[in-house]
Amino acid sequence: MIAHSIFFYTFSIIAIVSAIMVTASKNTVHSVFFLILDFISISCLFIMIGAEFLGMIMLIVYVGAVAVLFLFVVMMLNVAQQKNQWFSSEESSKHIPVGLIISTLIFVELIIVVGGWKYKPDLFDINNSIEINNVSNTHSLGQVLYTDYIHIFQISGMILLVAMIGAIVLTFRKRVGVKTQSYIKQISRERSDGVSVVKVESNKGVKIDD
Amino acid sequence: MEYLGILFDQVYKILFLLVPVLVSVAMVVWLDRRVWAFVQKRQGPNVVGPFGLLQTIADALKYIFKEIIIPSSSNKVIFILAPIVTMTLALIAWAVIPFSATQVLADINVGILYLFAVSSLGVYGIIMGGWASNSKYPFLGAIRSAAQMVSYEVSIGVIIINVLLCVGSLNLKDIVLAQQNLWFVIPLFPMFVIFFISALAETNRPPFDLPEAEAELVAGYQTEYSGMMYAMFWLGEYANILLMCAMGAILFLGGWLSPLEIYPFTLVPGPLWLVLKILLLFLLFALVKAIVPRYRYDQLMKLGWKVFLPLSLIWVVLTASYLFYFNLLPVN
User: Which of A14, A105, B21, B207 has a CB 3.0–4.6 Å from the CB of B292, allowing a cystine?
Assistant: First the structure.
């Protein structure tokens, strides 16, 4: 048990410190790296309480994909210019009250949600939990997800799909005058399409490329 | 004292796995160069040691004694961290690879997810190195590599789902044992081909080595690295390639199982079969490097998103409906 608690406190301290450093570090790229460290230590905590599937999915989805895109965006912005004038300049300091209001709202919402938490009635039933312990973590999660919570699961999938299509529609634009390669056009081109024999009259020439 | 005993036991086991992996990485670099040379009718490295086998070790020694140059305008902490991250991530994944029914360092329930997660973290070594160098070519290489790895990971994930549908477990040992009658390479052959090509893209191997395309980007994200740090990138890359080969061997070629359970084949121990399968896949990797010219970047992205992803998604539907219709779904 001692080793267990040592690991627990190590990971939680890393998680908290890196979460603070996300907001405290001046360089935005550094804060994304601290965010990644935070994700990793939280997934370690997930694994420590036995939720191995959630921990791994957290690593794959958040660290492997979402944070990479974060990093992309932050690196593309000109960080070197921004890091010196973030809070000190006149222009950016007026964002602080808005940020404060939003963060207080989110905090209050979190308190309301966690305070009004309702567990499933048979969650703490001992017979039930023994039954759950026999099957693996992934298995039991799948059983609950595809039976009791099927509608919520499907609806959240639909919301993600709509968001994806929305993002594509918003950024999609038809570019005019861009030459693109079309394999079918290239392969199906024959001699008769490309070459034509023209009789050239003397002193008149021929008009090409029209 | 009890903890100390467990600790020493674990360290002994880890060293017993890591040292052979590192040695085989060195040997595999030599094999890669030799195969490449033979395809082009050259000799390849053949001077140091018998058949040139010690060439990689000589190279590694040279790198150790070279000076490490850190660019003055680079972000030093991240610059030094990047090769360490690459190397570490390439090595920790070997913990879950089962060499036989009993020889596995960490027999965890979600082994395949762990492998997938670690291989998807591999992009950070490259992106950190590219950004921290604070120079144009490394940055372009890093951006290219990140986009490439994220796109090909998607199709690898979907291919893994195909295999998992047939197995019904995320444990790597169960995945191998489910192939006792029939290796998955036979029913899922198109998926094996796509997995192989995606693995090439995931490990930045030719023909998908655009992150380090030497004609355009000097050496991509490695441009500013020298000495031991460059060697770590290089070893990590090859360890990753071996890991991808091991993943292919476990998912499709039946891991440590022998091809036929008859007399001459059963003499060969299980771990050796796994090593032979990894080597077979690596030979394919090396041949592809020698034979196929480099892809253009838009073709690479088109291949990943418009060909591989739809194909593997359709195959998931096919596999699932086949298993469901003939009542073959692994339910326990």
Answer: B207
**B84 interfaces chain A, CB cutoff of 8 Å:** no
Q: Do B143 and A75 touch (CB under 8 A)?
A: yes
pTM for this structure?
Answer: 0.83
User: How many angstroms from the chain centroid is the CA of residue A103?
Assistant: 21
Cβ atoms of residues A25 and A35 within 8 Å: no
The pLDDT assigned to A90 comes to 59
Distance CA B123, CA B114 (A): 15
Q: Quick check: bond before B271 cis, omega within 30?
A: no
ipTM: 0.81
Domain ranges for chain A: 7-85, 121-169
Cβ contact B170:B164 at 8 Å: yes
Question: Which whole-number Å values give the CA distances from B100 to B16, B268, B281, in the listed order?
Answer: 15, 12, 19
**Residue in this structure with the two tokens 């570490």, named with its chain if needed:** B88
Binning pLDDT at 50, 70 and 90, where does residue B127 land? confident
The distance of A53 to chain B (nearest Cα, Å) reads: 7
Q: Is B202 on the interface with A (CB under 8 A)?
A: no
In chain B, residues 170-199 whose CB comes closer than 8 Å to chain A: 170
Residue B53 near residue B307 (C-beta atoms within 8 A): no
- B66 contacts B232 by C-beta, under 8 angstroms: no
Q: Which residues, given as ranges, of chain A have pLDDT below 50?
A: none
Do B55 and B31 meet the contact criterion of CB atoms below 8 Å apart?
Answer: no
> What's the average model confidence in pLDDT over B103-122?
86
Q: What is the mean pLDDT of residues B12-20?
A: 88
As given in the structure block, the two tokens for residue A21 are 């450093």
- What is the predicted pLDDT for the residue at A126? 53
Contact with chain A for residue B18, Cβ under 8 A = no
| CATH class of the domain comprising A7-85 | mainly alpha
User: What Rg do the C-alpha atoms of chain B give, in angstroms?
Assistant: 21
- Give B54's pLDDT tier (boundaries 50, 70, 90): confident
Mean pLDDT of B265-278: 84
Angstrom distance (rounded) from CA A72 to CA A58: 19
- Report yes or no: B146 at the A interface, CB cutoff 8 Å: yes
**Location of structure tokens 């300049």:** A89
End-to-end alpha carbon distance in chain A: 83
Distance (Å, whole) CA B287 – CA B1:
52
- In 3D, which of B154, B133, B151 has the Cα closest to residue B142? B133
Tens digit of pLDDT for each residue in A28-46?
A: 888 888 999 999 999 999 8
Min CA distance, B36 vs chain A (Å)? 31
Helices B2-39 and B76-92: crossing angle, nearest 10°? 90
What is the Cα–Cα distance from B170 to A52, expressed in whole angstroms? Answer: 11
